[in-house]
Write a structure and sequence with these properties.
This protein has one domain. Helices cover about 30% and strands about 20% of the residues. It is built from five helices and eight strands.
Amino acid sequence: MAKPAKGFDFTAAMRRVCCDMAHRLPELAHLDMQRIALGVCQARSGAMHGVFATLTPLRFSGGELYKVVRGRRYRIQPLSDGAGMEFLYLLNFYLPRFANLPLEEKLSTIVHELWHVGPRFDGDLRRHAGRCYAHGSSQKAYDAQMDRLAQRWLAADPPSHLYGFLASTFDELVAEHGGVRGQRWPVPKLAPA
């Protein structure tokens, strides 16, 4: 009989938070969290500047499975769950950096990444008009919108036990649970098809 894994399961806890956000926020109702792989990555340094989380689309523009580049056809290497269901997105959180943010910034970061999921939920990103398709013409306006969505989720009164771990720093989680663990996924690469 296998021993239970030691430490706090960060990706399982984050999945519960993301599922609840998708349930309580109509703007995220198109999300099917079973088709979004959640993972953790090691931040290269403990510095508080840098990447906190990323959302990687696992399809090309418009949800296309293949793309032709210089006459060769490619696809993004698929990621699948244990039953073989293919994921459409990969959402990674960079530890310990993400865990050391204040609670409100963590919530805004989660909403920020989930908002990138295209409204058709086809493996492509939500695309804004213009050159800056990921965040629109104003990063500041985008961030303010994500802050408002995160506050609306909190105002919808989700159970505190669901997100209480987000009030802890990385070191506090380690001290309380004897460690932090989470799913790790290979970086999706382009592969000839």
